[in-house]
Design goal:
Blueprint lengths: L42 H8 L6 H15 L4 E4 L2 H17 L3 H16 L4 H20 L3 H12 L4 E3 L4 H15 L8 H12 L9 H35 L1
Antiparallel strand pairs: 1-2
Length: 247
C-alpha cells in the first residue's frame, strides 16, 4: 500500500474491538465507473493507512489534506513541506488501491442492492453505497489506539501550503482548529451519525440528495450493514497494504 515504503511498512494491527457499538474522500474516487459518483471524506482512514509507515506528523496530515481541501472549498497548489507532499501522494495512491479491491467493490454493490430493495432512487443509493462503506469502515478503525494517536498527531502539524485561491487559507485554518477541538470522530461508530453525515454531503447535489423517506431507508440499511463492514475490515486492510506495497 505504501508506495514510498513498499516492503517496509509493518502489518496493520489486528482490530481488537469486539464490535462497533455506539468524517471522512476529498479526492475523486478512483473506483469502478458504477460507483465513481461523489467525493468522499474518509480522512480518518487515510491517517490510519499513513500510520503503517510510522509516518511523521506532516505525512499523516498530508494523507488527509485532499479531503480537508474539499471540505474547506479550496485547491492546494503545492505543499512546501516534503513530508506533507509525501502524504498527499499517499492519499491518492491509497484511493486508487482501495477502490480496486474486490472486497470493497463487492460491499459497495451489496449495499447498493440493499438500498434498491428499499426503493431508494438511483442517484442517492449509489452515492450512499460508496460513502457508506467508507464511513462504516472508518467507524471500525476509530477503535484502534494506534490509529487514534496517528490522527491526533497529524492534526497537530502546521503545514506550509500554497492555495490556488488565497481565500482558502483562512477557511482551512478554521477547519483545522475545529477538527483539533473535536478530536477523534467517535460518532462514526454509530450508523445514525453516518446517516446525518451522508445527508449533509449530498444535500446540495440535486441528483444525489435523498428524500426524507429515502434518508430513513438509508439509516436502516447502514445499521443493518454495519456488521458486514466490521467482519470484512481486517481482510480489506490486509489487501490494501498488499496493493500499496506492490505499487
Amino acid at each position: 500500500m505504501l508506495a514510498d515504503a513498499a516492503g517496509a511498512a509493518p502489518a496493520p494491527p489486528r482490530l481488537s474491538s469486539p464490535a462497533v457499538r455506539d468524517i471522512a474522500v476529498a479526492i475523486a474516487a478512483v473506483t469502478t465507473r458504477r460507483f465513481t459518483l461523489v467525493q468522499g471524506v474518509n480522512f480518518f482512514g487515510h491517517a490510519a493507512v499513513a500510520s503503517w509507515s510510522a509516518a511523521a506528523a506532516g505525512k499523516l496530515l498530508g494523507a488527509m489534506l485532499p479531503d480537508f481541501a474539499t471540505m474547506c472549498g479550496g485547491r492546494i497548489e503545492a505543499a512546501d513541506d516534503a513530508a506533507v507532499a509525501d502524504g498527499i501522494a499517499l492519499h491518492h495512491a491509497t484511493d486508487a488501491a482501495f477502490h480496486r479491491l474486490p472486497a470493497v467493490t463487492g460491499l459497495m454493490r451489496e449495499l447498493d442492492e440493499r438500498l434498491a430493495r428499499s426503493d431508494c432512487s438511483r442517484g442517492p443509493r449509489r452515492a450512499v453505497a460508496h460513502i457508506g462503506v467508507e464511513l462504516l469502515l472508518d467507524g471500525v478503525l476509530v477503535d484502534e489506539p494506534g490509529y487514534r494517536a496517528a490522527y491526533v498527531l497529524g492534526l497537530s502539524h502546521q503545514p506550509a501550503l500554497r492555495w490556488r485561491d488565497p481565500e482558502a487559507a483562512p477557511r482551512f485554518a478554521v477547519l483545522l482548529e475545529r477538527l483539533r477541538a473535536r478530536g477523534v470522530p467517535d460518532d462514526l461508530r454509530r450508523p445514525e451519525a453516518i446517516t446525518v453525515r451522508v445527508q449533509r454531503i449530498l444535500a446540495h447535489r440535486p441528483l444525489l440528495a435523498p428524500s426524507p423517506d429515502e434518508l430513513g431507508a438509508i439509516g436502516d440499511a447502514l445499521a443493518e450493514f454495519q456488521p458486514r463492514i466490521t467482519a470484512a475490515a481486517e481482510t480489506i486492510l490486509r489487501a490494501l497494504r498488499a496493493q500499496l506495497a506492490a505499487a
